[in-house]
Design brief:
seven-stranded antiparallel β-sheet, five-stranded mixed β-sheet, Immunoglobulin-like, globular, single chain, 3 domains
């Protein structure tokens, strides 16, 4: 069973005559071979007449998994080994239990406390996607079940990719695109700039690129070895008026998920400062009218952006729910020097779920704050 690090995870012993239990917790990345030294060694006694001793360990394990995104889509998981030893009142070992689990920065819902992603091939909740025309989109899959990912266009197979389970944490998650699982460019311009080239925009080039839809698909299936298949419908959006923004966040499965906001973007800046009243008199009791009497200091600004999603389906209610519950969110900007990924925080704290029955059209506006100040104050 995989460990959801954002939800409680209990483990322990239930052995007759137990007086106390110890647990050694080892946490590491890489292969499934555990290190010699455990990071934590804990001890807990029984309560009353019950011989059950349990430890909640998700919080302390999570200190060792910091999911990050810099434009590269990489597998970020950790191995956890627990050795639980039950003792009687004479310090005699009654039982030793050992388990090794993979851990994700994932969480379960209150209504589904036994949620386990170890055997789930597809690591997104929505079964319909809205992607930007001529831009690469990625499907995060769990390699545990040896999945096969197939891309379709008009029911014809465009690409098929198969993956095998691995003992390496760096191979546990694959972000699969039509071009493979190692593509970190979203479009032609990013590829040029990423290869240290110069992208010279022109009317002719724009017309040429607009003539083709690169890597277009309308359906993706993910099938593991036991025959379990998840199908995702892909809707390609052409946006001519606005510049769509790509948001990447850590979803409930603990993996990176992209989503586009296709419509209007409004940027703002808020400035904070301290001030004081200064004495501008000189020794002769004169002053200059050019000197500030009211002085400002510690001035810095923070920028924010409001994004409109455009019209989506009800499937995206789950996506927006997980976006607002995510602790890690990034926005990708395309500059003249290439792709720039910046950390942002979701400012919107509540949404009303929309449905086609109640609202006809499903569209959301979400506010984000940059996770840094305008003036560099990192010291």
């Amino acid at each position: 069973m995989a460990i959801n690090l954002r939800s409680p995870y209990y483990t322990g012993t239930d052995i007759a005559s137990t007086s106390y239990t110890t647990i050694a917790i080892s946490i590491w990345e890489g292969s499934s071979a555990s290190p010699v030294t455990a990071q934590y060694n804990l001890r807990k006694g029984i309560i009353g007449t019950s011989v059950k001793v349990y430890f909640e360990i998700a919080e302390i394990i999570r200190d060792y998994l910091d999911v990050n995104f810099d434009g590269d889509y990489t597998s970020q998981t950790i191995w956890v080994k627990t050795v639980r030893v039950a003792y009687n009142s004479s310090d005699v070992v009654l039982s030793t239990l050992t388990a090794t689990n993979i851990a994700f920065d994932s969480y379960s819902y209150f209504q589904d406390p036994t949620f386990d992603i170890e055997y789930l091939p597809l690591l997104i909740s929505n079964r319909e996607m809205f992607v930007l025309d001529d831009n690469t989109f990625r499907i995060p899959v769990n390699t545990y079940g040896d999945p096969t990912v197939t891309f379709f266009l008009n029911d014809a197979v465009v690409s098929t990719q198969s993956f095998s389970s691995s003992a390496l944490t760096t191979e546990q998650i694959k972000y699969v695109s039509i071009y493979g699982d190692d593509t970190n460019y979203d479009n032609f311009k990013e590829r040029v700039l990423g290869d240290s080239g110069t992208f010279e925009d022109s009317t002719c080039l724009k017309a040429f690129l607009d003539s083709f839809s690169i890597g277009k698909v309308d359906k993706v299936t993910v099938t593991d070895t036991d025959g379990t298949t998840a199908t995702v419908i892909v809707n390609t959006i052409e946006e001519c008026k606005y510049e769509p923004k790509k948001i990447t966040f850590v979803n409930r499965f603990g993996v990176l998920q992209d989503m586009y906001f296709f419509k209007k973007a409004v940027e703002k800046m808020n400035v904070k400062k301290d001030s004081y009243k200064s004495n501008v008199l000189d020794s002769s009791m004169n002053y200059s009218i050019n000197k500030h009497t009211n002085k400002d200091f510690n001035i810095n600004g923070s920028e924010s952006i409001s994004l409109s999603s455009g019209y989506l389906s009800e499937e995206y209610n789950q996506v927006f729910q997980q976006l607002l519950l995510s602790e890690k969110v990034w926005i990708t900007n395309i500059t003249e020097s290439g792709e720039q990924v910046l950390p942002i925080n979701v400012k919107t704290s509540n949404i009303t779920y929309k449905t086609s029955l109640n609202d006809k059209l499903v569209e959301y506006s979400i506010d984000f704050d940059n996770s840094f100040n305008v003036i560099n104050d990192i010291r």
